[in-house]
Automatic annotation (TrEMBL):
Domain of life according to the entry: Bacteria
Annotated transmembrane regions: 21-42, 54-76, 88-108, 114-132
InterPro entries: DUF6069
Protein species of origin: Micromonospora chaiyaphumensis
Keyword terms, alphabetized: Membrane, Transmembrane, Transmembrane helix
The protein's name: Cell envelope biogenesis protein OmpA
Amino acid sequence: MTTTVNTTRATTSTIGALVRTGVVAAVAASAATMAVAAAGHAAGISLEVGGAPIPVTGFGVLTAVFSLTGVVIAALLSRFARRPRRTFVRTTVVLTVLSLVPDVIVDAGTATKALLMLTHLVAAVIVIPAVARRLAA
């Protein structure tokens, strides 16, 4: 009798589960960033950048687009990276920090810049851990 050793790495989920989790996280992050933007606007913080107003729904749309881009990155890393979770977290933290750079240099008031940066961080805090939990360590 012979035994076969399975040398494939165990993954914590399938791509389908990763995508489902990512979509749910993207929707939650979009709603959260719209809520933060609306709350900031209600508190008197301008949503004008360069003289043009940013609609509250714009926060949600851009959050969804970039969150889903993160899900695609996670799916690719789950297939090709040796340590997908660690690589995903490191990559997305760096991308989050880089996403703050335009907020710092944009033509807007200090409170508006802070609100923009807060929305980026809120989205990251929701999406990164949710998706990372679905990746193999």
